[in-house]
């Protein structure tokens, strides 16, 4: 039992001993681990301390004094030195490499010292511009890279700009001069790198109107630098957005993702680089501006546009490098990181910058070449172009390059505006000459109408001095300022042509002129260009002409594009054209805008290009007048003596077989003998027409009254203008006489006015010499002449015309009544009523409307089937034009004509000129 107890105890004692031993071991290990951890902690604390004071200062820093000589401290320092030397061992050549890199990426003015290039013109016009642009240099401690302690290494600092990146600069207090110097330096490097004209700089400063970078003042005369209105940031952003859209459209269409890619692939630069410098004031931009700015920034680089933002707080899309100024010499930039200070290059000497700017400006102006002449607009060979797709011709020059006008799908119609004397007519001549020289008359037909007083297009039709004409011209209308109806006639004509073309397109199952020409190669489908100078005359009054003109113009503007019918509307005063307001269709369809200097409202609102355009220039804009479409062009003198006529003669000789244009000259009264309708009068026509005047139409037509044997086929002339009344009756009688064989018709002329006896007698003689019976009586004979014709009414052997002059003068005599017998007036009424069906027609002249009504009595006006009103107000004519309001204010040389059987409403007619009457 006792032995058993002893064994138990020994076992327990052993177990306890083992446990004690184990615990001792564990405690020892823990103590060791603890002291190791403590040592590690001390080392880390030391490391942190050393790093916070910098390895190079550890030796002297008082915070580390207590550790001096401490082996831990020595270990920490040697470890850190080891790390640093390993880290910098790859960077020992860094500064040199950087210098080499900047030298190659920023060659010439992009990176070299200003003394080497400032004031010299750039020559670079290649496809790969410098990638970097120097702004200053940075210095690093060379001992860090294994060099001797206390030595430094410096390298050039440059930023990317064109095609590569935007730049955002943040100033520090009182550093504006430094920021200006930085921006000026960068811009000057860019401007001095490229050939003059290849870079366009836009400057906008929220706080300044004109004095942004004043050393560039000389350049602001050219397109190289534009200073924008501080209140109109939106205009600048719109302009840039417009460029981006336009450039993207054509680069993508050509299959390139960016302008740069296109340039590199084709080897051709088609656009300038654009740099927009925006100076803010550190405050947030308005939300809409910010949104627009971000939109611009994200698409800009691909369109060759870079932004330089100064104190404009925003996060831009696309790549952006930053420069933040620390003081007036130092900055940090995203190119080198926050720990490297950049010493900015000193400002360029301002006098030298100003000189360099003026030299550059001069070079740009010189590049425009001497004043170019009209001949420079013409191709070497005439008539080589096809108008199937569009019309395209240079109209002027900008900085030496031709500026073209395109009339086609995107720009079907044009609006030209400019104050009097600003060169609109000259521009039109330049355009017409340039087009006519490129396209043959089979490709281009011109309809030219000038509402101005004067004869600006008259030379394009054959004249007394020059027998030549412009073969492309189909119609030339001049002096039509009082004949708005002629404008209407042109629009109607074009509208008919539009219908004809649409019908043809439908027949060939095509939708536009280009396809129609393909499908119908033998058809004659030239593009039609209708030029209406001072077209606002069309809308001069609130009347039916304005209403119809507006409707027709709108229709032509809308549908003319696809059928190759184009309008060119020119005016001094677009602003005043009331008819446009509220009916913007025409205005909007005129996507080609030409603004002469000082033109108002031709370009989009806010586009001020026309205000600053110099004399003899025009702003050509194919983008509905939006600023990004502005192309300034110097227009050569096309209107001086012997300029256009020389071209016209050459073209006339070349296209000799083309018909002459119709000339409508509102100032010249037409002659009956020249009227094609009169010339065509010959015996044997079925229904003879009495011609009364020339119609205001595109083709040379005459107004006439068919003298059929039907009720009402009489003609009344109303008004007191003797010459015109004689002219109307003379034309009517002579034209009728030509339509009968000799002796197959009878005329009886009754002249109640002594003042007209000579003319009426002369007419009677002429009729007789044609072999016709032509009796003539004076006032006394008229009552019996009338009675005699009533008696002969039933003879019906041949047509008879009773021509009465000044019927109202013999009314008392006609009214005289003998008991039991009808008066001559009653006879006259009988003739008017019953005569026409028996081929006896009255052509009569009454000097007033009331007198005619008296003559007709209560029977109404049915017997007057056709009339010509001279100096008579429209309101008086209501009775002769039932159911209509007649708009007519008498004007010299014009009459109103209405033939109930053919007209819906009265039309203006031009009485033929009778030299022997007015010239007597
Ligand atoms: N580009 C130019 N170069 C030289 N002279 C020009 C040029 N443009 C116009 N002129 C001259 O200026 C004058 C006025 O020009 P033009 O008749 O074309 O102006 P406009 O705007 O049509 O004026 P208006 O409406 O009064 O007729 C003319 O004598 C013309 O010869």
From TrEMBL:
Domain of life, source organism: Bacteria
FtsK domain mapped to chain residues: 400-605
MF term (GO), any: DNA binding
Residues that, per the record, bind ATP: 418-425
Keywords, comma-separated and alphabetical: ATP-binding, Nucleotide-binding
Keyword set includes Repeat: no
Database matches in InterPro entries: FtsK/SpoIIIE/SftA, FtsK_dom, P-loop_NTPase
The keyword DNA damage appears for this protein: no
Entry-linked Pfam families: FtsK_SpoIIIE (PF01580)
Listed PANTHER family: DNA TRANSLOCASE FTSK, SPORULATION PROTEIN RELATED
Name recorded for this polypeptide: DNA segregation ATPase, FtsK/SpoIIIE family
Native organism: Saccharomonospora glauca K62
């Amino acid at each position: 039992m006792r032995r058993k107890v002893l064994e138990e105890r020994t076992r327990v004692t052993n177990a306890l001993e083992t446990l004690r031993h184990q615990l001792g071991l564990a405690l020892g290990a823990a103590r060791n681990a603890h002291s190791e951890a403590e040592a590690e902690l001390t080392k880390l604390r030391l490391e942190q301390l050393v790093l916070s004071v910098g390895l190079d200062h550890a030796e002297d820093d008082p915070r580390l004094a207590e550790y001096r000589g401490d082996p831990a401290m020595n270990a920490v320092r040697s470890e850190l030195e080891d790390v640093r030397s390993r880290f910098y061992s790859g960077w020992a050549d860094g500064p040199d490499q950087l210098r080499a890199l900047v030298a190659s990426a920023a060659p010439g003015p992009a990176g070299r010292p200003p003394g080497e290039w400032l004031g010299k013109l750039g020559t670079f016009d290649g496809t790969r511009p410098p990638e970097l642009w120097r702004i200053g240099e940075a210095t690093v401690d060379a001992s860090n890279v294994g060099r001797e302690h206390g030595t430094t290494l410096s390298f050039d600092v440059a930023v990317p700009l064109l095609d590569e990146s935007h730049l955002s600069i943040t100033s520090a207090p009182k550093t504006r001069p430094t920021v200006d110097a930085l921006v000026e330096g960068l811009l000057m490097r860019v401007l001095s790198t490229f050939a003059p004209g290849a870079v366009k700089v836009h400057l906008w400063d929220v706080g300044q109107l004109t004095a942004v970078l004043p050393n560039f003042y000389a350049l602001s005369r050219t397109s190289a630098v534009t200073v924008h209105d501080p209140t109109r940031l939106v205009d600048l952003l719109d302009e840039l957005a417009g460029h981006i859209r336009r450039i993207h459209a054509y680069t993508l269409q050509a299959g390139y993702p960016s302008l740069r890619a296109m340039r590199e692939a084709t080897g051709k630069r088609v656009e300038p680089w654009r740099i927009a410098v925006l100076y803010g004031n550190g405050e947030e931009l308005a939300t809409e501006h910010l949104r627009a700015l971000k939109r611009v920034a994200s698409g800009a680089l691909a369109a060759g546009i870079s932004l330089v933002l100064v104190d404009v707080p925003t996060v831009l899309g696309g790549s952006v490098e930053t420069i933040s100024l620390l003081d007036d010499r130092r900055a940090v930039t995203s190119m080198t990181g926050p720990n490297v200070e950049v010493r900015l290059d000193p400002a360029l000497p301002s006098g030298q910058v100003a000189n360099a700017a003026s030299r550059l400006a001069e070079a740009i102006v010189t590049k425009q070449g001497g004043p170019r002449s009209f001949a420079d607009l013409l191709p070497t060979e005439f008539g080589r172009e096809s108008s199937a797709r569009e019309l395209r011709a240079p109209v002027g020059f900008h900085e030496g390059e031709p500026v073209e006008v395109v009339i086609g799908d995107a720009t079907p119609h044009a609006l030209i505006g400019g104050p009097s004397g600003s060169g609109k007519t000259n521009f039109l001549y330049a355009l017409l000459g340039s087009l006519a020289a490129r396209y043959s008359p089979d490709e281009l037909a011109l309809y030219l109408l000038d509402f101005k007083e004067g004869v600006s297009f008259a030379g394009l039709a054959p004249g007394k001095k020059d027998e030549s004409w412009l073969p492309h011209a189909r119609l030339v209308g001049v002096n039509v300022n009082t004949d708005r109806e002629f404008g209407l006639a042109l629009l109607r004509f074009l509208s008919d042509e539009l219908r004809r073309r649409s019908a043809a397109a439908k027949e060939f199952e095509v939708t536009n002129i280009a396809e129609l020409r393909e499908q119908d190669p033998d058809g004659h489908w030239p593009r039609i260009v209708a030029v209406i100078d001072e077209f606002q005359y069309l809308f001069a009054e609130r009347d039916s002409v304005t209403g119809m003109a507006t409707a027709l113009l709108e229709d032509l503007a809308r549908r003319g594009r696809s059928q190759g019918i184009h309008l060119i509307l020119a005016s001094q005063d677009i602003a005043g054209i009331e008819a446009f307001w509220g009916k913007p269709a025409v205005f909007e369809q005129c996507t080609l805008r030409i603004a002469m200097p000082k033109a108002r409202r031709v370009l989009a609102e806010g586009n001020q290009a026309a205000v600053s355009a110099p004399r003899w220039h025009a702003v050509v804009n194919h983008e509905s007048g939006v600023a990004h479409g502005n192309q300034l062009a110097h227009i050569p003198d096309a209107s001086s003596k012997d300029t256009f006529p020389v071209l016209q003669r050459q073209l006339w000789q070349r296209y000799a077989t083309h018909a002459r244009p119709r000339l409508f000259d509102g100032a010249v009264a037409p002659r009956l003998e020249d009227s094609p309708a009169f010339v065509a009068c010959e015996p044997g026509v079925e229904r003879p027409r009495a011609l009364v005047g020339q119609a205001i139409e595109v083709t040379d037509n005459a107004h006439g009254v068919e003298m059929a044997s039907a009720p009402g086929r009489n003609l009344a002339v109303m008004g007191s203008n003797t010459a015109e009344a004689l002219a109307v009756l003379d034309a009517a009688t002579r034209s009728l006489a030509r339509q009968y064989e000799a002796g197959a018709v009878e005329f009886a002329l009754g002249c109640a006015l002594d003042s007209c006896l000579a003319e009426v007698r002369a007419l009677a003689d002429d009729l007789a010499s044609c072999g016709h019976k032509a009796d003539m009586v004076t006032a006394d004979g008229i009552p019996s002449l009338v009675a005699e014709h009533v008696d002969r009414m039933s003879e019906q052997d041949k047509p008879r015309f009773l021509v009465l002059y000044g019927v109202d003068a013999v009314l008392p005599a006609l009214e005289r009544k003998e008991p039991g017998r009808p008066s001559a007036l009653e006879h006259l009424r009988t003739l008017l009523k019953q005569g026409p069906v028996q081929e006896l027609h009255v052509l009569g002249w009454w000097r007033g409307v009331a007198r005619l009504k008296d003559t007709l009595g209560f029977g109404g006006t049915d017997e007057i089937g056709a009339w010509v009103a001279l100096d008579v107000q429209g309101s008086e004519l209501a009775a002769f034009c039932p159911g209509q309001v007649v708009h007519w204010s008498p004007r010299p040389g014009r009459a109103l004509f209405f033939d109930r059987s053919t007209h819906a409403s009265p039309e203006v007619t031009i009485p033929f000129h009778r030299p022997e009457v007015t010239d007597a």
